[in-house]
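Protocol step 4 of 6: structure prediction from sequence.
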Amino acid sequence: MAASHFVFAQTAERVTSPHRRLENARNLRRARQNQNRSVMFARSGSRAVEPRQNFDNSGNGMLKGAYFVRQVFTELDETTSDIIQAVSLTGTMTFDGNGNYSFSGQQLNSANQTAASSYTISGAYAVSSSGQVQIQTPVSVDSGDVEYGGVGSGGEVIASATEGGYSDVFVAIPEGPASGVTGSYQVGFIDFLQANASDVRNGYFTMTANGTSSFGNVTVNGEMANQGSTATTQSLSGVTYSFSGNVGTVTFPTASSPLTALVSGAKTFAVSPDGNILVGGNPNGYDLFVAVKTPSSVTNATYVNTYYQGGLENPIDICGTGQANCMDAFYGSVLPNTLGAGTEHLRDAGYDYSAYDYTTDMFYAFPSTGAYSDGEFEWLVGPNGEAVLQVGLSGYYTLITQFQTAPLSGSGAFINPDGILNAASFAPITNDTAPGEYVVMFGSGLGSTQSATSLPLPISLGGAGVMVDSVSAPLLANVTSPYALMNVFVPNETESANGGYGYAVFQASVSGAMSNSVTLYTASTAPGVFTSTANGIGTADAFHVSSTGAFTLVTQSSPAAIGETIVFYATGLGATSPSVADGAAAPGGPLATVTDPYFEVDIYDSEGNDTLVNNYTAVLAPGLAGVYQVNITIPTGVAGGECYLDVGTTDGYTSEAKLYVQ
């Protein structure tokens, strides 16, 4: 069963969009990086230097056979975000199911080519049991780099090389026959015309195949940065397509002035075996288009299970003052709850900051057509939710591609491979886990219901235990209804305890029988704020503290006041001084204080302003095991109403929990 089935109902409207709040997270990341570049670049060396080493490859068979690949790869100026060098890749990548691939197609490099040339390369890949993938980057600029991402239920791949200092997007689908191109498709695209960030354009349109060679007439909706980012349309007549084997060409009329056109010329593409997805781009350009077949009917419940996502973007509408471009790339995952809300994770890397984990809430309201605008994105949903696209609007140039994972299940003791989540934020599977973090681990056959009743926490509950990198993990609870899950404390001995990065392997034992193992990425911190809805996207578990020491919940009817000191609880904030044994009660003195030099709290208010909290303490809550207590004084300048209580660390930033301020 997929993890999304376990997300509790939460459909409150967002205060502001997660990608608007992402602007604030990126600005904070830049500020920290300018303070200490050696610390903030630490991860760039670690994941990329050891591609595939020690990474779970039990899912390698998920990738096997001929795949059509389109990749757009950029090297960016760290000051201006201009594209120094761009590479596009178009062709067929053949996976052998055992961790090796060969590629044959075309490559275009803006540094030394004006037209694409034939190109072949071979490399390695690894797929974990959850479908997380690592692929040796096929472009010639840096074939030692790694694409990180995930594999969808139909074998689709979305990935990005976030750790190696480049910005790119990699999309692949199994090649289907030409006969699969039938009916109506909803298309999203992005194009870095002439390898110039300032000439970026994106948009969307519908095209309908007649089953032979024509898409007919097409009306394109979109924006062009070099034309003032004004919403515009372009009418195209006589769009045709043809195939040679399983690779096709779609031909749009060639514009007399490409700089003023949204779409122009011929593009190479392929169709998925089920006919539901098209992927392509111009071999002689730096564009990407992805299309999903128009669905017969869509509801919020169509958007279900975990999705892997990725994109290469230039959100010029949120660039800083005097900054024309601010490109970034990311991979990650989305965990919708089928009721119009959910959580998402982006492993985000920008032109002037290194990769970090951004987790947020997300909201949606799909009409039956599967296409709608939320003011920031045009959403396009494919049949059965197999693929979802988001096209940026109003100067937010992006094409976000999401591929749905297959529901996962197993016999006996079974951990859901995409069902280990931050216990506070419910950040989905691609988010790092950290030593000292509480995670919720979904599965089946995990023993009987039992909760810990004393400290230190036990390492067995309900006849079950959990090992993390072969170390017994303290357990807070084992629950069998309504879902089988375990609340697990990640041991401090887990890799990353000393600031490193790597992988952690989770495995359960039930009455002596071992479950499957699940591998996750690790970091020294993985922040999450506990909420009243127990799923990360509701009101924070924040409390007023009276003069007598009594705690009362901060709510809409009892909001926090400017200048008041309140308390909230979190997980994943990393090491403390003094350190505390796994599962043991934190001391009342001396307090176990968070040592992360980049820990911070900020409040994103109802008017879209962000205020950094300067007066705070962050410690392990005395008398509790592994729960962090953060005391903050509400700063002046915060607008009243529903706000976001955001927490940042060296490795991540979470913007999910709400806080009411008067």
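Step 5 (inspection) to follow. The radius of gyration is 24 Å.
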